[in-house]
Amino acid sequence: MALLKEPDLGTPAKPGEATVSVEVDGHPVTVQEGTSVMRAAALSGIDVPKLCATDSLEAFGSCRLCLVEIDGRKGTPASCTTPVSEGMRVRTQTPRLEKLRQGVMELYISDHPLDCLTCAANGDCELQDMSGVVGLRQVRYGYEGENHLDLEKDTSNPYFDFDPSKCIACSRCVRACGEVQGTFALTIEGRGFESKVSAGAGEMFFDSECVSCGACVQACPTATLQEKSVVDLGMPNRTVLTTCAYCGVGCSFKAELRGDELVRMVPYKDGGANEGHSCVKGRFAFGYATHPDRVTTPMVRDSIDDEWREVDWDTAINRVASGFRELQDTYGQGAIGGITSSRCTNEEVYVVQKMVRAAFGNNNVDTCARVCHSPTGYGLKQTFGTSAGTQDFRSVAQADVIVVIGANPTDAHPVFASRMKRRLREGAKLVVLDPRRIDLVRSPYIEATHHLQLTPGTNVAVVNAMAHVVVTEGLVDESFVADRCEEFEEWAEFIARPENSPEAVEAITGVPAEELREAARLYATGGNAAIYYGLGVTEHSQGSTMVMGMANLAMATGNIGREGVGVNPLRGQNNVQGSCDMGSFPHELSGYRHVSDDAVREVFETLWDRPILSEPGLRIPNMFDSALDGSFRGLFVQGEDIAQSDPNIGHVHAALRAMDLVVVQDLFLNETAKFAHVFLPGTSFLEKDGTFTNAERRINRVRPVMSPKTGKDEWEVACEIARAMGYDMAYEHPREIMAEIASITPTFAGVSFEKLDKLGSVQWPCNDSAPEGTPTMHVDAFVRGKGKFVSTPFVATTERSTRKYPLLLTTGRILSQYNVGAQTRRTANNTWHAEDVLELHPHDADDRGISDGDRVSLSSRVGTTSLRAVISERMPVGVVYTTFHHPDTGANVVTTENSDWATNCPEYKVTAVQVGLARQAEVVAQ
Amino acid sequence: MTEETPPQVRLANEIAVQFHHRPPEQAAQAIAQHIRMFWDPRMKAALLRLAAADPNSLDPLALAATREIG
Ligand code: SF4
Ligand code: SF4
Ligand code: SF4
Ligand code: FES
After folding, report:
1. How many interchain CB pairs under 8 A, A with B?
2. What is the ipTM for the molecules in this complex?
3. What range does the domain containing B52 cover?
4. Is residue A781 part of a domain?
5. Which ligand lies nearest to the CA atom of residue A444 in the structure?
6. How far is A795 from chain B (nearest CA, A)?
7. What's the pTM?
8. Are A335 and A436 found together in one domain?
9. Is the Cβ atom of A725 under 6 angstroms away from ligand 3?
10. How crowded is the C-beta side of A406, counted as CA atoms within 13 Å?
11. Contact (Cβ atoms closer than 8 angstroms) between residue A298 and residue A698
12. What domain count does chain A have?
């Protein structure tokens, strides 16, 4: 489509039912009470000139360009700050207003460089537009007077420039940074003529608190804050609507191109997940898609010690197909399998799992969700009946108490974090359960009421203790439990036992009993209470137990089934939800239906014309174990770097080395490709056509902005492998794949590309009873009928600190990098985080003679790596922290084979380690 | 348990400890059911083999569960 310019109604919509009718320039219009005159005018089709107002921000009333006349009122009020009242008659175009507006514009322009024609923002500048609109023809004040034209540009941010000479001090950037992003990095320094935007006391953008979300750039009406890519490439001239491919928030973006060149990604106001906001990754870090490291030709080699040879697609596909078939002939049908990727579209994932089940003829398919949110699947299915979060993101605006458990949303789910922070600034209470003092605990205008700084590995003890307080202090929502749930009595008896009391577990968890009691009371009695959690919940030996523990707590307090409450996983990768929905688990067909269910299997068998095994296949860690025992010999890996991201890397590498045929489909020759025999080049999200499903079950369209650089869509590759193996699988277009998914998956029955194109997005379940999707789940009944209480005894992990390994390591990620970093390391995001570091408490550092910045060794019972130390009071004594974005540090060299008992999700969050100065460690090693 | 513990034994024992709070018979059934729902046939077979060869390596509840599966 041509360049999409979204309408700007000047001020935000007002909530509520009550309406007011007014007349603007003779046009009647009815709007919500509290709406501004400016917005009412815009809704009646009349744009009042404006500069400091935009509908993503509350009105500010500083530019005085939006003046109007109102019958019966003196003067010329600003329409952006004046609310409508019943019967009001407004005039927006009179000679007096015209003159006043011209006067205002004249002042602005007299202090603004007149280089419109060569300015990067030419054609996308509101100052330029408004000069035209108000009919400014001459500027009476020359440039001789004092002006700002010589101010120096700040180019320190890798993605955008700040050119203060063009600033009109409208403060939109300052307000965007506060209201929308919640970072409050910018201020207006000085007053009157002296006022100027500043990123902290005289600092450059790069050195400031700025997290490079781009909200200010988007809000800026001039070229003052401008994307570097626009300066370099020029203004875009067409738009493709698509979805970010980084995290599970699933932000909608306008990909803006100039011809065929992608110039910038601008968050889309109508995006259900993000409503016009973005973070540094989706907004700016898309350069990896065209990075020279991309491999776009298939390659093969006989052994992993050989050099790669480029081949054509047919050769590569035949090699894969014949190799896999030979392995099956020799070692049995179950000797091969596949791993689907949460980075790929639903359609691509569905086709790969179909290839495994129908063409390979087994259930050896798993997905990288194994290593992140598989416990969510298990835990929520057991208790609520389906494997998904209960709310949409918008719901957080109705929460009164927000409990964040083992998640770091400001880094890992930044756009959702901004929504959450907005609600917290409005007064919602915050409880954080995390060993580390994450940013959210104390940030501008936000302070957690309780930060329960628990010892890693004791989540279940803490959540049980909270439930203990609820049950023993009479805080149970009796009627909700009676009407909606089952097996409460047995659970209540269990949870009320003295061993679950806060006092009893204090010694294990490190959480003061009284504070835990207060937090539990707040959760139970503070109004709408919502739980948001991340991998700090799931990546534990009791990950699934913890998910059920949180579900118990929510049910016991009636915090489920309406807006503002719920139990919500913050999903890691963009399509973790979708890849799970699509039947990527070895025990489940699409829509979470077990392979042992004859009726379900029959539907698939009829459509696919192949028998499906009724017993589960291998999970990822089982594949590795079976590779080492010789029963598993060939693996297809779709877009995932198991050799870097999976725990106990030594073990993973040995398993990969033991296999006869490893096929990797990816953008880059990643770590796993070092063990591969066939490399099939993959497509980036900019080339994909399909859908992603985000953490709120929202199915968003991904639309290609360029054709596949590899000459083939990924789903076509899977189809061709299946065909070469003798199973006829073919589609003309991904829309047909979605149609097939919808035809056999009840929760997707109403989903189609046509509907998504029309509605923008839908949240599953989407079917006859919910044709436009389901924002909130379990409203009148749980998916499984009654919500089920499950007793969740705390069982300590076997991974404990010892004399040899006295510290506990926990892992996480940071804002600018993404998982194994394959994408973000290939962008300017590396400027912020060029290496993984080890955070440790000053006390632990002192004990070991470590100073900030020292190179240290980090060892566990399975391996040793080295990295730079950062001393930080965020960590409790005895706990150290690192990220796993860089292969050379390889944090997973030290993580162990321990895993969640129910799902084998690795226990990334607890590893007993020792830290020492690197040099000493080397000496010891010698 | 050591690194050399066969994975099937390690995994079965990890499941078993989660059910120690239940009456033994119920627990064995729940463990068996879990294994049936989530384990690949070769892993089940290996577990049965290992249970027969070295019953002491298994948590008593896991061992009881293997009888339900077998
Ligand atoms: S990029 Fe985002 S964080 Fe940085 S100053 Fe602008 S709005 Fe604030
Ligand atoms: S930088 Fe842009 S948004 Fe900020 S005050 Fe200046 S003109 Fe307004
Ligand atoms: S919050 Fe997630 S989905 Fe949104 S722009 Fe950032 S990385 Fe992309
Ligand atoms: S737009 Fe109303 S005062 Fe600026």
Report:
1. 61
2. 0.93
3. 7-69
4. no
5. 1
6. 7
7. 0.91
8. no
9. no
10. 32
11. no
12. 4
